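User: Quick sanity check before I run a bigger batch. Here is a single chain. Can you write out its predicted 3D structure?
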Amino acid sequence: MAKPLRVGMIGYGFMGRAHSNAYAQVNHFFDLGHQVVRQACCARNEEKIKAFAEKWGYASYETDWRRLIERDDIDLIDIGSPNNTHLEIATAAAEAGKMVLCEKPLAMNAEEGQKMVEAVERAGVPNMVWYNYRRVPAISLARQIVDEGRIGRPFHYRATYLQDWTIAEDVPQGGPALWRLDVNVAGSGVTGDLLAHSIDTAEWLNGPIRRVSAHTETFVKERTHVETGKKEPVGIDDACMFLAVFENGSIGTFESTRYARGRKNYNTFELNGERGSVFFDLEDPHILQYFRYADPETGRKIEDHLTGWQRIHVTNSEHPYMDHWWVPGCTIGYEHTFINALADFIEALDEGKPVQPDFRTALHTQRVCDAVLESSRTGQWVEIPPP
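Assistant: Done. Predicted structure follows.
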């Protein structure tokens, strides 16, 4: 008999929907020791959160997150609200003994993130940050290829994350829809919103980043603020590029922007090593490209007239997560990455083990983001302390 896992969801926007879909679907596709119960959701706007509760099957709703945390019928608090709310909510939830899941980035900055880590570790509550791209089957397969020694000694890592949705100067900042353009709510621009994903993936595949040298740019300096109706300075970064040196001696380049006309969610990485390479593009998410140069066991060059880049269609049952989904050849999408992540969290909960990425791992990603922004301000290389 599965144990109930009673969820309190905070937020009803893009992430609130993505997480709620995972809560609704996870037990349909994964055999787990816990049965998710959508117990309550929470937001300040009563009309909207009531409609959200009805649409997504929550038994009740609250308009004050403090009341949600106080409830005895809630086991887990999921923070899908803007970045400037993460610290206070996560700390209170941990102190109340609730499990805590949090949307990325972990916090506004590493100082806040450190307090969040201390809160969940002091309380001993299970915790996870929704870096969902780790759960794209093709990216998980890339990690498997690395672990199997098929890349060998790494030399280069390069990542891009490109969008184009803020190019127009008349796009405002602030409010429920555009808080990511308000530095007081988001903390940063593409660095925290997009590059945080790239950094998490890079460190998962290639180990910790030790040094960075960065440049950021804000192309539109002033935007009308939704809440004041006045033109106000834009404090977030529209674009960022940085160089990285990894602990293993490899070097990396990272680029992100919201000003790449024609790019909607172009998230790519390539890792080049002594024995092989991998390449991934989120806009072609069921494909992993792999170049095999040397045997992973002997290290000897493979003498083969067919040597070249392979396009692996990651839908077979032997591929990560795919035995839970459809038959080979049938792809899964963005929403499934959240279901996979939630399944991993619950499986770890069933086994009494921690899951990754937890708050402490996400704190290191936050430290890298902070170092990137500091390097941009100072024009200097910035060292990042070990995880």
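The chain is about 35% helix and 25% strand.

User: Great, the batch can go ahead then.
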